[in-house]
Amino acid sequence: MAKKLRYRLREKMQRMARKLPFLGPLLVAVDQQNLHLLQLQGALASQINQQAFVAREQLRMASPRCAEPLRLCAHEASVNSQNGEDGILAEIFNRIGETDRVFVEIGVGDGLENNSAFLLAQGWRGFWVDGSANFLPIAQRVLARGVDRLRWHVGFVDRETIAPILSELGVPTEFDLLSLDIDQNTYHVWDGLRSLRPRVVAIEYNAAIPASVDWKVNYSPDRVWAAGQNYGASLKALERLGAEMGYRLVGCDFNGINAFFVRNDLVDSHFAEPYTAENHYEPCRHLLVHQTLHSRDLLDSPD
Q: First and final CA of the chain: distance in angstroms?
C-alpha cells in the first residue's frame, strides 16, 4: 500500500513539474530520498533474514531429533531448495541408492528455487511442470548448454489431467524422485498419479493441522490457493494416502513444509520408525526464515 502511494505521489509531482519547471530539482531530491529509503529497507531485511537463519539453525541443531541417526533433519542443506530439501534428498538417496536419476517436479517456481535445480547440476535429467512460464528462461539456459536433460509443460494441472500430461512428456512409470508442491490441490494431484511408481516423493503438507488429524481441502479442479490456511492436506492425510499407494512417511523438513516418502520395498531399516505423522510431524517454523504468515481461514469440512 505504501509503495502504491509513493508511486501516485511521484506521478502527481511529475505532472506538476511539467507545468512548473522549478519543481524539477525537488522531484530529483524526492527520487534520491526514495532510493535511499529502499536501500535501507533492503539492508535491514537482509540483516533480519541472516539473524533469523542463524536462530533457526541453532534451534534445529539443538533439537533432540537431530541427534538420532535415522532422522533426516540433521542433513538439511539448501543450494536451490528453500527449506533444506537438497540435503535431505541427498541423504535419502545415500541410504537407498539411485537408479535412473530422473526427477519429476510439479510446481517449480522460477526454476532457481525448487527441489530439482540442484539435481540438474549433478547430472540428473527430468521434467518440470508449472502453471506459470516464469521458469522458461532457466530451462532455456539448461538447453543452451547443449545437453538435452530437461523437458517441461506450462499449464495448470489437476487430478484428472496430470497423468496424461506426464505421459505426453515421456515420464517413465518408475523413476527416482517426484516432487510435488502446487499449494491448493497437492493431495488430490498426488492421488491422480497412482499409475506412477517413483522411488521417493517429496510433497508439501499443511503444518497448521495437528499431526493426528486427517484433513484435506475439498477438491475442485480449478481451485487455487488464496494465501490462507485452507489449503493442501494434513500430514496424517498424506501418510494415509501414501500408505494406500505403497509409500511410507520417513521424515519432514524442520520448517514444517515438506514431507518425504519412500516406496515400501526400499525402506528396509534405513529410516526412523514408526512411519507415522505423529512420529515425523514438524510444526510450522517457516516464519523464522521466510517471515510470511498464512492468514486464518475457515477450513473445508467434508463434502
A: 38
- pLDDT for 125-174, tens place per residue? 999 999 999 999 999 988 888 778 999 999 999 999 999 999 999 999 99
Distance (Å, rounded) from C-alpha 79 to C-alpha 226? 29
Cα separation, 102 vs 176, in Å, equals: 5
Q: Can you tell me the distance from the alpha carbon of 198 to that of 203, in angstroms, rounded to the nearest whole number?
A: 13
Q: Are 204 and 229 in contact (CB under 8 A)?
A: no
Measuring CA to CA, which residue among 90, 85, 180, 84 is closest to residue 127?
180
**Any idea how long the chain is?**
303
- pTM higher than 0.90, yes or no? no
Helix axes 24-62, 2-19, angle to 10 degrees: 170
- For the chain, how many helices (H) and strands (E)? 10, 7
